[in-house]
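Good morning,

Attaching, inline, the backbone tokens for the sequence recovery test we're adding to the shared suite. The designed sequence is right after.
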């Protein structure tokens, strides 16, 4: 199997497709029409299928790309902001990632082998990035010590699941804000 990088024009198409899919998934969910994604990327449907033969390949590529962005964001934020602010801004970025993936939970539980165990794998990839930010905030005494990165990742993901009475991303962000307020050191039980 070849490990060469795609030609420049092919890479531009891949990048355009990932950007378009990310936009469409946020607006229409992960079941967005393939033709609409191709049109948004300004490529033909055949080009989309050449790079992503199955819908699950495209969903997985978008998720992988966004997880990589979230991980990279942790370092940038920790170099720019005080620990608590960096952690809060990272959780906000993670909330955006999770809250804008309508239909992702259904896809993850669809029985498609591509998605088997994906949720757990994504959390394992994200956990070290958040753990570093949490540790730094703990060292300053700004947050409680009894919350792990895994706890926080899972709590945010659950708060972002759409359901009856939930009003979209704004509602999720408000609930995550309440969760983050609860991390304050003064709320820690003895």
């Amino acid at each position: 199997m070849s490990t060469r990088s795609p030609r420049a024009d092919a890479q531009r198409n891949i990048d355009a497709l990932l950007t378009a899919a990310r936009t469409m998934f946020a607006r229409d969910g992960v079941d967005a029409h393939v033709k609409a994604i191709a049109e948004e990327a300004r490529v033909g449907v055949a080009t989309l299928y050449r790079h992503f033969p199955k819908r699950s390949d495209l969903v997985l590529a978008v998720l992988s790309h966004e997880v990589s962005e979230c991980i990279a964001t942790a370092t940038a934020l920790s170099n720019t902001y005080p620990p608590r602010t960096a952690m809060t801004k990272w959780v906000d970025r993670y909330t955006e990632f999770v809250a804008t993936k309508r239909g992702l939970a259904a896809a993850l539980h669809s029985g498609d082998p591509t998605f088997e165990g994906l949720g757990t794998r994504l959390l394992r990839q994200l956990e070290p990035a958040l753990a570093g930010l949490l540790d730094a905030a703990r060292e300053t005494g700004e947050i409680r010590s009894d919350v792990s990165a895994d706890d926080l990742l899972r709590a945010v993901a659950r708060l972002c699941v759409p359901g009856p009475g939930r009003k979209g991303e704004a509602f999720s962000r408000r609930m995550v804000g309440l969760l983050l307020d609860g991390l304050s050191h003064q709320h820690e039980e003895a």
